[in-house]
Amino acid sequence: GQNIDQPTEMTATEGAIVQINCTYQTSGFNGLFWYQQHAGEAPTFLSYNVLDGLEEKGRFSSFLSRSKGYSYLLLKELQMKDSASYLCAGLDSNYQLIWGAGTKLIIKP
Amino acid sequence: IAGITQAPTSQILAAGRRMTLRCTQDMRHNAMYWYRQDLGLGLRLIHYSNTAGTTGKGEVPDGYSVSRANTDDFPLTLASAVPSQTSVYFCASSDSTSGGMDTQYFGPGTRLTVL
Lengths: 109, 115
What we know:
Number of helices of chain B: 0
Number of helices of chain A: 0
Shape of chain B: globular
Strand content of chain A: over 45%
Strand content of chain B: 35-45%
Helix content of chain B: under 10%
Structural class of chain A: mainly beta
Shape of chain A: globular
Distance between the termini of chain A: 40 Å
Distance between the termini of chain B: 36 Å
Oligomer: heterodimer
Number of strands of chain B: 11
Radius of gyration of chain A: 13 Å
Number of strands of chain A: 11
Helix content of chain A: under 10%
């Protein structure tokens, strides 16, 4: 079956760095997405990886290892506004997104 | 530019009633999607449409129907609502005829409670 696993909740300190891990099993693979979702709001796109390696975009970076079925989202210089849920989603062979349940990130001052 | 709009924002519905959730996008995206989001679960695809005039079933289509008469609108209908359909419903769109390779953009959601 298809499955996306990510931690339910993580806590980090303002100004620090946090890494949110995601492992995936999909029927075929056409890429890995990360979305951010603030409480009560819609998910918004953060990153897309289809090749192995690190993609950096400002304070946020995303890494993919296709051989390991593994990705992570790295958030640097954490700000209070980064408190949100982070959703990992794999794109399967039918180009449908398979979503993880999300990781709730709590930032403490 | 509004992006994607959904209506209503929230609704309380008696079981057995019929309900249509509306979704409109102004980005001229060819693909549109309906998801439900429940606590502790990932977003689950209900129905999708790769282009106007075509629709397909997602992971959890039972009890729901959709239509795609034009590019902009993608309504979701619950023919006879049941309490298990209590959820937050998100509409999304993407600019891809292949169905999902491009980024999906989400509407603000509709919070539906079925009593």
